[in-house]
Amino acid sequence: MTTGPHDPSRTARRPRGPMAGRREDLRGARLDALLRRVAGGDAGAFEELYDATAAAVHGLALRVLRDPAQAEEVAQEVLTEVWRTARRYDPSRGGAMGWIMTMAHRRAVDRVRSEHAAAARDDRAARLEPPAAHDGVADLVMDRLDRQRLRDCMDHLTGPQRESITLAYYDGHTYREVADRIGVPLGTVKTRMRDGMIRLRDCLGVAS
User: Fold this and answer.
1) Taking Cα atoms as reference points, which of 20, 23, 107 lies closest to residue 61?
2) Disulfide check for 188: which of 38, 115, 169, 184 has CB 3.0–4.6 Å away?
3) HSE of 45, CA atoms in CB hemisphere, 13 A
4) Can you give the pLDDT at residue 198?
5) What secondary structure does DSSP assign to 83-124, as a single string?
6) Ramachandran region of residue 155, left (φ > 0), alpha (ψ -120 to 50) or beta?
7) How far is residue 71 from each of residues 4, 76, 101, 111, 180, measured CA to CA in Å?
8) Whole-model pTM?
9) Whole-angstrom distance, CA of residue 81 vs CA of residue 163
10) What keywords tag this UniProt record (predicted)?
11) Distances (CA, A) of 127 to 112, 114, 120, 134
12) How far is residue 197's CA from residue 49's CA, in Å, rounded to a whole number?
């Protein structure tokens, strides 16, 4: 028996039921609670928040930047910023995931603008034209200074702390994957991450 042309409406996604909405509400409440604990300096809560949000943060950055290496770097910067600035989160203005994803989108867009500004300057220099004033120069300089400060502060960590943080944030591994990769207990990785993040926070001048 022949069938007629495919009707997309027959396979349209069904509306979410009340259970799906309930699950989203519970997830949002859990992230809000974790972020409040992170604001109090709870490294364990930060580990859970990282595991729950890192993939989404990286995915958004990748969609904006279309460059895996830069997306990983931006995701690292965003999650570090979450740790540093969690006290600024205001639940009355939206959920934790929205706050984090807004931060990620802003960082990714800023990176695109910075790269475009740098490419434009290089192009002008190649043509031996005097550089024109650009409204984004100050933002570009500050962005690069922030990244340089983070790299400098990473150098102040112990080798094991730096290795654990690099694997978790630059390479995107969970804490358990980091432990398996370097052959130490999970608790040791958590301790290194907690102490390393505290050192980074102090080095970057963020109040505890």
Assistant:
1) 107
2) 184
3) 16
4) 84
5) HHHGGG--GGG--HHHHHHHHHHHHHHHHHHHHHHHHHHHHH
6) alpha
7) 45, 9, 13, 10, 25
8) 0.51
9) 19
10) Sigma factor, Transcription, Transcription regulation
11) 23, 20, 11, 17
12) 14
Q: What pLDDT was estimated at residue 200?
A: 79
- Residue 171 carries which DSSP code? S
Query: How confident is the model at residue 2, as a pLDDT?
Result: 44
Tell me the two tokens of residue 94: 């939206």
Radius of gyration of the chain (CA): 21
CA 108 to each of CA 37, 63, 78, 125, 172: distance values in angstroms, whole numbers, following the listed order:
26, 9, 9, 26, 17
Domains of the chain, residue spans: 25-203
Length of the chain: 208
Q: What is the CATH number of domain 25-203?
A: 1.10.1740.10
Contact assessment for residue 121 and residue 131, using Cβ atoms and an 8 Å cutoff:
yes
